[in-house]
Each structure stands twice: as C-alpha cells, then as structure tokens.
Amino acid sequence: MSESTFAVDPRPPRKRQRARKACLPCRQRKRKCDVQFPCSACSTYGYQCQYPADDGPSAPFVGKSHASHVSPNSTASPFGSSPTKAARIARLERDETPESPESAVDHQGILDPVKTRYMGLHSVMAFPRNLGLEFQSANPPRVHSFAWNCGIRKEDDGSNHTNLKDLISRENFELYQRVYFEAVHPMFGILDKQIFSRNADQFWSETGGHSAFEAILAGVVALGSFFSATLGHPRELEIVQHAKNILEDPVISRRVSIDQVSAWILRTLYLRLTTRPHMAWLASNIAMHLAEATGIHHEMDAVVLTTDSSSQIVPNQSGCEQARRLFWCAWMINSMISYEYGRSSSSLNNITCRQPTSSKGDYTALLISVAQLVPRESLDAGPDLHHTLPQIQQIPDEHPFISMSKADLCMSLYRHHRLLKQPIDKKEILLIISIGNTATEAACKLAQENKFWWNVLCTVFQYACVLLAIDTLDSLAQVQNAMCTLENIAAQLQNHVSTEAVNTLRILLRDSMKKKRQEVQLLEAADSDLGANTSNELGDMENVDINWDALLDPWYVPTLLPQQFQIGAEDRGIFPSM
C-alpha cells in the first residue's frame, strides 16, 4: 500500500470514530449510532440511550437517558388493562436507577447463530474468541468448548430409533394435526402453522436421519390423539416414547436448536395431562434451560453475534414474534407448574424478550398474563391477595381454559396464604368464590366437549377443598354445586383418578360435618339450662338406629331420618323465654 493512500482520506479511522461518539447501548451491541439523543437504535428498541461523561464535545448530551422501554417482567397485561400502583412504582424505581455499563456488559450474551448456541460473554467458551478479537487476530478462535475436559473417553454415538412413519400413517397424522391446531394451538401458540405444514410435507416426502423436528411431529400427534373424541391412536404411547428417545439422544441433544425447545414444551404439556407432577415439572425446567441455551430469552439486537454475515441469519419480524411466543410459553408453563407444585421455577437473568402480541382466536397472551401474576417474592412474604385477586378477575374469560387457569392461580394463592395463617377479608373470599364458580362452569363445558385438560378435574376438586377450608356461610353455600360438578365429571371419566378425587372430597366433607357436630355438642353442654334435657335426649338417641350414611350424604333428605331424631329446637328449650 503506497504512502499516498493515507494522505487521500483525512478522516479518522471509522472504528475510532464510532467508539468515541456512539452511545453506550450501541457500543455494547456493536451497532451503528447516529449520535442523536435519543439515537434511532435506542428509540426503535426502547433502550436507555446514554453517553459516557468523558465522551468529549461530540456527544450532544451527557448523563441523560431515554427510558421509554417497558420491561418484559412488568405486570402490564397484554390485553390492555392499566398496571397497578405497585407496578408503576416499581417501574419508576427501575427507570430512576439506570443500569451501569459494567452490569450491562456483565449480563450481555453471545450467540452463535449457526449452531443456535447462546452463552454469556464471560463464559469459558467465549473467552478465547474475545481474546483473539482484542489481539486483532486475523482468524480469532471460534466459540468452542476448548479444554472443557480431558477428552479421555469418546462421546456417545447415540442409538438407533424407529421412524415416525413406521408408527403412524400420513392420513392419521393429518387427522391428529387438525385436532392439535383446534384444541392446543389456541392456548399454546408455539408453532407457526404454515412453516410447520411446509416442514411436515418435506418430512413425509423425503428420507433422512432423525432430527428434533421429528420430535415436534410426534408431540403434535400425541396431543392430537389425546384430545380426540375417540380413544386416540392405538400406538400413542409408542409415539410419545419415540419423541422422548429423540430428545434424549446425545447426538441430537448436543446440537441445541429452537426445535428442541418446541418439542420439550409439547412433551411438558403431554406429561401434565397424563402423569405425575414431578415429571411435568422436570420437563418444564428442561424447556426453560433450552430456551436460554438458544438465546430466545433475548431480543436478537440484545446479543452479540459470532459472525459478521448475520443479516442472512437474523429472523424476520414474523420469526422474531414466533420466538417470543415460544419463550414466553415455556416461561408461563414452568411458572404455573412450579407454583402449583410448590417448587422453584427456572429463573433467567436479564430477560429482554418482548411479550408476544395478542390476536383474535389466540389466547396465548392471556395465559401469559395469568402467569405473570404468580408471586416472585420469597415464600416467607406470602401472596398479596388484596392486589392480586382483582387483577386475576380483570383478565377476560374468553375461553374456558383461561377461566380454569385463573382459578388455579387463585387456589394456589389461597393455599399459600392459609399456610402462613394470615387473615382474609370477606371481599377477597367473594372474589375467590366468583372466580371459582366461573371455572366450575368452564370445566363442565369442556367436559361436555370431551376436551379434558388437566384442570377440568383438578380445578373443581381444589375449589371444593378451598371452600371447605374457608368455612364461611358464603363458601359453604357453594360446596353443593362444586361437589355435584365433580361427581358429574367423574361419572363421565369413570377412571381411578376421578373416583379417587370424589371419594377424597366426600371424606373431607363428612369430617367437616363431624367436626361441626362435635363443636355444637360442646356448646350445648356449656349451657346449664340444657344440662338435664340434653342428657336425656342424648340417652334416647343412643338407642335410635340412625342411618348415618344417609345423614352424612350431602344429598340426604331430612325425611330419611327416624321419627325420634326429628326434635325441634322449640321442644329442646334452646330459645328459653326471657
């Protein structure tokens, strides 16, 4: 290169100019900054536009910030209701305390878009590459697990799997796919229907090795089979096991992909519908960890890419929206299952993923808004029923599943509240009853449609238990309706789980009646005016053959009792003249 080359262009080097003038968010994300306040990038993505104090005269403003971005963890509901006073105060506190550049860099991550692999900039895999860039290497090291272990043993080569085409025909797949998109997709919109159909057609027309997308196909078939009006596909369990084997295959699981996140969410839903809570909780945590591993908990502009040709890899607006729906569905399922089960949920640092938009016929955003009301404070603090219950009630009951999910959260809040022995107001009791009654009707409706979501039985059972636990006139007046609904659903199911739930609730109901009867006897014994009469009456009652099964039945008719047992209050002198 000749010496005159440097004399032709008097401008300073481009890299130095951007480093001197760019605002802090653009520097951290290696984006071009237009040196305005706020700059176009910060205005577009809602960042806090800040210029360092030592940036020189080229910075138009010093020490100012732009805080128009709403945190994805805020309690603003996607259906447009105004945030609560506590949420507004918390947001003001966050805005008044801007994040320091050091903490922002510490939370920043790096994404390998080719392998869809996300990690922190401080990770052992990213550090060699960062050093190479700092040393201005011609070929900086790739993001790789250099020296992660000693490499003494060979990695598992995986195992052979059956093919999904051998387990189900194309015609049956089309049938269960339609059922899935009618029953499951409106609640958990994690798949793009057009892209899914196109990839499914390609799967059935080509031959090749197994992939995570095949696990998605198996998950769709399994859930579609579950929600079919018939008994489902005869090889449903084999299809579920096939998806599990693919997801746990070391060759496939070593290469993280967004398809794995979708497949694990589908598996979590199936496990929540069919097996024990521990298994569903584990699967939901795996889905969350895979969501972090693929970086979808961040917006694409919030991470550093490992390749300069990122323009060909960055998804379009539709792909970004689908990634948001995928992450928030994983987050929502994990939060709800963990809170109901009484276990810790997966907590990710510095979530920048925006919430998905709501649309007609899609209820994913509403379910996310329900999950956002799950308390995040420590277990010792307890839930704030006074503020949370009204927010739950404000969520529209646009679908029966939404109504039951709202009730599930109410029951969980009350159980936690009761465990801490905190008082509860009548207004809060009436809110729980109102939400519970709506959920009871919703469960009955879904049962009639043969859409047996997990909370069709669970919500009604827990609601009846909560009514007995509240133990007021308002709550006890609703026990009959809840019990009747539970028995009707159990009669339609006719299996061990439903029968067990009904029998357990009957035992609790009868024990509650027995406890109240003993309390009445103790109070009567304390009245000296009733001493003699009560002793005689109790002596006579010992000789009476009482049909206790009829008495303790919630549907008993008073005429079923023996004539000697029907003693009026006026005959027993309970209300003596003054």
UniProtKB/TrEMBL annotation:
State the signal peptide span. none
Q: Where is this region: Disordered?
A: 1-20, 63-85
Q: Which GO terms describe its molecular function?
A: DNA binding; DNA-binding transcription factor activity, RNA polymerase II-specific; zinc ion binding
Name of protein: Zn(2)-C6 fungal-type domain-containing protein
What does the UniProt keyword field contain?
DNA-binding, Metal-binding, Nucleus, Transcription, Transcription regulation, Zinc
Provide an example Pfam family for this protein. Zn_clus
What is the species of this protein? Hyaloscypha bicolor E
Locate the Zn(2)-C6 fungal-type domain: which residues? Answer: 22-51
The Polar residues compositionally biased stretches are 68-84
Identify the PANTHER family for this entry: 2-NITROPROPANE DIOXYGENASE FAMILY, PUTATIVE (AFU_ORTHOLOGUE AFUA_2G17430)-RELATED, PROTEIN RDR1
Swiss-Prot/TrEMBL GO biological process terms: DNA-templated transcription; response to xenobiotic stimulus
SMART domains in the cross-refs: Fungal_trans, GAL4
Report whether Metal-binding shows up as a keyword of the record: yes
InterPro entries listed in its UniProt record: Metabolite_Synth_Reg, XnlR_reg_dom, Zn2-C6_fun-type_DNA-bd_sf, Zn2Cys6_DnaBD
- The reply on keyword Nucleus is yes
